[in-house]
UniProtKB/TrEMBL annotation:
The lineage of its organism: Bacteria, Bacillati, Actinomycetota, Coriobacteriia, Eggerthellales. InterPro entries: Ala_racemase_N (IPR001608), PLP-binding_barrel (IPR029066), PyrdxlP_homeostasis (IPR011078). One of its GO terms (molecular function) is pyridoxal phosphate binding. Pyridoxal 5'-phosphate (PLP)-binding protein, which is involved in PLP homeostasis. This is Pyridoxal phosphate homeostasis protein.
Amino acid sequence: MGRYAQVATELQDVCDHALRPFESVCLVAVSKTVGSDQVAAAIAQGAGDFGENRPDALMEKQALFPQVRWHFIGNIQSRRIGDIVGRAALIHSLCQLKHAHRIDEVAAGLGIVQDVLIEVNVSGEESKSGVSPREVVDFARQVSELQHVRLRGLMTMAPQGDPQRAREVFEELAYLKELVCAHLSDEVAAEVSELSMGMSGDWREAVFAGATIVRIGRAVFSDESIERFAPRREDER
């Protein structure tokens, strides 16, 4: 069994223990450190979603493998938005209104609607990008008014090395999504369904907190051994 297939099997186990359908969580294989051969191998094992953090790599790999969904998960630069819109099925890292307006402009020129997630800096770490939790409702309201941008949900990254703190961050993002939806029209709120949270070190905690997208690179593409999931009591999570 290949590495992607192993991770997908573990995701199934974690979903079972979280009492969630496997289909409710999208596994994005973060391919930013690997070449086309490894992407092709993951596709052969069933991968259908990949994440890139650089526009050049996104352009190259999306052209080679247009049959799968590509996600842009890196920092957005205004001058490269034209290279991202239309190639990325979902942009995970929107956190500036000027970028939202530029995405809207490019998407309008292409005759499409670009799906986006708002990146939220839930942990408050200075090293992380993102809208602050107290500003996310107003930010989401302004994004939702754009004609060629479709708000699909929120994204965050948790501090590394502390599973309990990660769980708290993920649970707060889930709360913020509900808060955002409560301030949008019913029609718009119905489309705000995604929570992109959890990476190789903390995706299990994210699934228990309600993640609909997990972004996993190292466990899918490195030669490191996979730490198998062991169910824990509720008071240990």
